[in-house]
Specification:
Number of strands: 5
């Protein structure tokens, strides 16, 4: 009882940390997709801000559904826009609210994971509070699940699917599945969010199907379950396709309503011809090895050997060890049955025990490993079966100190350090651009970003109608291209009050110094760690370490 009380208090503390750190906010920048798969697009559509639309959201190549961005970032931006229009909040739209409001919604949604763990733990014979502490204490939950990734939504939908397929009667036996309709909706919604959701859904769906087959005596009831699943899946797909088609094509509801009866059929035919099915476009693009190579190719074992360890540390390693032990035991049992009894092998273990959870973990991991482009965030939905497996009563959580230190290091690295100067830099520039001095008379700003992640322009809070701010993203340009651009900007003052800023990590600051362009002001934002241009260890040990772990804003 005492241990359970300590676990409850620890979970509450970690849950408060999750919410508080979101509001602080977290400065770490994990990957451009956390901005460019939802918030950046919705800021342009709803708030009419200057943004960069990624290619997946262009009408010429629609590969991402607009439904989830509208339901998450879109709703939050509409809310702060409404508050400002109603004069409830005079300056609701600023860099802080643009960053934090979508993240706050995702942080609230992240507690779906906690609810799922609490519901699932008794079914999978795990200690619920031990599992909740493992979940809430993981830096994956603290950092990744509070960010606006489609992978985050994928993990939440996977958790809901596991809850729906895992049901138990009060007597302890498996209950008859009654959630066929909801399972169909969630499976289809997950597929439209990310087609890779099918890899995560495979084992829960097979488990659900086996429960139906085992519990049904009537073929009519059996067919009824699958029919409800298919009908609800089709209806959900119809909703997504319709929403995406209206978003990505020029055909609008207003056009349909304004057409007379004679042209209505023609308008509907036109809409059908322009039908957009984003998952098929996504698959078509990603099944092409050449396209995947543009985003980076990795060995097929990267998820198993690198990404799993990077995300989950010892829990991943212990799961691999347990998997090999159980596989060895099952093969031995299989051989024993065949040699001694000449009968069907059967399963050595109870279907609701740890081996099934390991399949929920390793089967999606194996399917995702078939693709050459492998990023750690692709695996974050797997935290749910992993913590349930690790919290089973007969499996003591060893290496506690190592697990704590690993998650502290991960939270510090990805929540604070990784590209950690870019978001504060955009906050600083937004205040500068909208300062009273800039408002009193027009100033022109040129912002040149080099050797940083792609800057989300929405955080500058610039209306599309404003033309006095120009953003130039040089990405990882070489010294020659960078110097050429800097010299062009320095010699191209087209107005009496032009301000040109170069934003560059401290590790490559010498590159811009060699260009010979003069600076009149510089601001150092600390900390900022660029893994593409990492600091040299000898330099870090010198007195210049703050510069190496900083991001410079240099004014020409």
């Amino acid at each position: 009882a005492g241990a359970a009380m300590v676990a409850r208090a620890l979970w509450a503390l970690l849950a408060a940390l999750r919410a508080g750190w979101c509001l602080l906010p977290q400065s770490g920048y994990l990957h451009p997709d956390e901005f460019f798969q939802a918030p950046e697009v919705m800021a342009g559509d709803i708030l009419n801000l200057q943004v960069y639309y990624p290619w997946e959201f262009l009408s010429s190549s629609p590969c991402r559904t607009v439904v989830f961005p509208l339901m998450t970032s879109g709703v939050m931006y509409w809310l702060i826009k409404s508050l400002q229009q109603l004069d409830i909040c005079s300056s609701c739209i600023n860099s802080y609210t643009l960053l934090v409001s979508p993240r706050l919604l995702f942080t609230i949604f992240s507690f779906i994971l906690d609810y799922s763990v609490y519901r699932l733990a008794p079914f999978w014979e795990a200690d619920p509070w031990k599992a909740l502490v493992l979940l809430a204490g993981s830096y994956v939950t603290l950092v990744f699940y509070t960010r606006t990734f489609t992978n985050t939504l994928e993990g939440l939908l996977f958790a809901l699917l596991m809850v729906l397929v895992s049901s138990r009667k009060s007597s302890g036996s498996s209950a008859e599945p009654t959630s066929s309709s909801l399972i169909g909706v969630i499976t289809t919604a997950g597929f439209f969010n990310r087609p890779t959701f099918l890899a995560f859904a495979l084992m829960p769906l097979l488990y659900w199907a086996s429960l139906i087959v085992d519990s049904q005596k009537s073929i009519k009831t059996l067919i009824n379950h699958f029919l409800r699943f298919i009908l609800c899946a089709c209806f959900t797909a119809f909703v997504f396709v319709t929403a995406d088609t209206f978003y990505f094509t020029s055909v609008s509801l207003d056009n349909l309503y304004s057409t007379n009866k004679s042209n209505l059929i023609e308008a509907i035919v036109q809409l059908h011809d322009k039908m957009v099915v984003t998952p098929f476009n996504f698959l078509s693009y990603n099944l092409n090895p050449h396209n995947l190579a543009l985003h980076g190719s990795h060995p097929r074992v990267t998820h198993f050997t690198v990404n799993g360890v990077m995300l989950f540390g010892m829990l991943h390693i212990l799961a691999i060890g347990a998997g090999f032990k159980m596989l060895k035991k099952y093969i031995r049992h299989l051989m024993l049955v065949r040699w001694c009894y000449r009968g069907p092998p059967g399963l050595l273990v109870h279907p609701e025990g740890s081996p099934t959870l390991l399949l929920f973990y390793f089967v999606p991991l194996a399917f995702l490993s078939l693709f050459s482009h492998q990023e750690p965030r692709f695996l974050i939905p797997l935290i749910l079966p992993l913590v349930l497996f690790s919290a089973s009563p007969n499996r003591a959580v060893k290496w506690k100190l190592l697990i704590v230190l690993f998650n502290l290091l991960g939270a510090l690295l990805f929540g604070c350090l990784h590209q950690g100067g870019l978001i504060p830099c955009l906050f600083h520039l937004e205040q500068l651009i909208h300062s009273p001095a800039s408002s009193s008379h027009l100033r022109h700003y040129t912002l040149l970003f080099a050797h940083t992640y792609m800057p989300p322009r929405s955080l500058l809070n610039i209306k599309k109608t404003d033309v006095h701010v120009e953003v130039i993203d040089m990405a990882g340009a070489g010294e020659e291209a960078l110097c050429q651009t800097a010299e062009q900007q320095a010699s191209n003052f087209t107005c009496s009050d032009c301000h040109i800023f170069i934003i560059i990590p401290g590790t490559v600051r010498d590159t811009i110094t060699k260009c010979g362009v003069p600076f009149k002001n510089e601001t150092l934002i600390f900390p900022h760690l660029s893994m593409e241009d990492p600091p040299q260890i000898p330099v870090l040990s010198s007195g210049n370490w703050r510069s190496q772990l900083g991001l410079y804003i240099l004014e020409l």
